[in-house]
Amino acid sequence: MAKQKFMTLGRHIIEGEKLHPHATGELSHLLRDLSLAAKVISLEVNKAGLVDLLGFTGDNNVHGEQVKKLDLFAHNMLIRAMDHGEHLCVMASEEEENIIHISKKHKVGKYVLLFDPLDGSSNIDANVSIGTIFSIYKRISPDNTPGTMEDCLQLGLKQVAAGYVVYGSSTILVYTAGHGVHAFTLDPSFGEFLLSYEDIQIPKKSKIYSINEGNYLYWHKGLKNYIKYLQDEDKNTQRPYSSRYIGSMVADIHRNLLYGGIFMYPADSRNAHGKLRLMYECNPIAYIIEQAGGRASDGKKRILEIQPETLHQRTPIFCGSEEDVLMVEKFMAEEDKVKA
Predict the structure, then answer these.
(1) In a domain, 158, yes or no
(2) Are residues 175 and 161 in contact, defined by beta-carbon separation less than 8 angstroms?
């Protein structure tokens, strides 16, 4: 835990600016606007069953998935909280097929925001922890013009900030702006995010793995071998590992970030490109994991070096404790050699 000191999210962001002598304050204001949206979403998540926000809307999103009422609320709240701050030139959401332009009523800024408004929303009705994931880039199109698709389709390496919010027994916002990973817990008594973990470092090796083993039949043979390896007993390598899979990416990632672990959502014979979205989930999570000293790849290549081609591009992901990710990459590479 962080040392006992009163550090709000706003104050922490401002102090982080001091590390960048040419900072203008725009990114700080953008992050504070995001935290406001997170507070409102958190409030609605906590009372969703009381105000008829649970269940489906009856519509499908761009991916053909049924849209939850709370999904739609979070999507709209983020847009309403962010579109008038004059810090953004364009946005993109996992729930929207195309980019989201800033209204002509508002001045456009120099940043780009991509977000998954409510990750893990299939768990909403079961009261399992869910979350918001966000990713921020600097625009590459000319200033004072509407943002473009090219602004959104940048390498993950180009992110200037990323984070997620977990809505669970408490609401926790985790973010990085390139100078470490920090977590803040929302104190509902006066509505402020207070520093709870500073400069998080994920352990280099763990004893936890997170994966949906119901898909085992369809996996790469190397991945099957790796899972069996984790389940074998060997005191020298601290095996067997424990399986911990919630099914809500932010919840699984948050636990592994604090305690160590590897999160895996692989491609399989039914989903050749995996199921998670590069721009809304994998890039921001990979940036956070790397900033905390971990590793994130698609099994072969660093996630942050994947060139995006479409807004809703999917990718496999293996991320978490560095030694564990390297090990699964080794197992998969060895199987590929056998096949070759």
Answers:
(1) yes
(2) yes
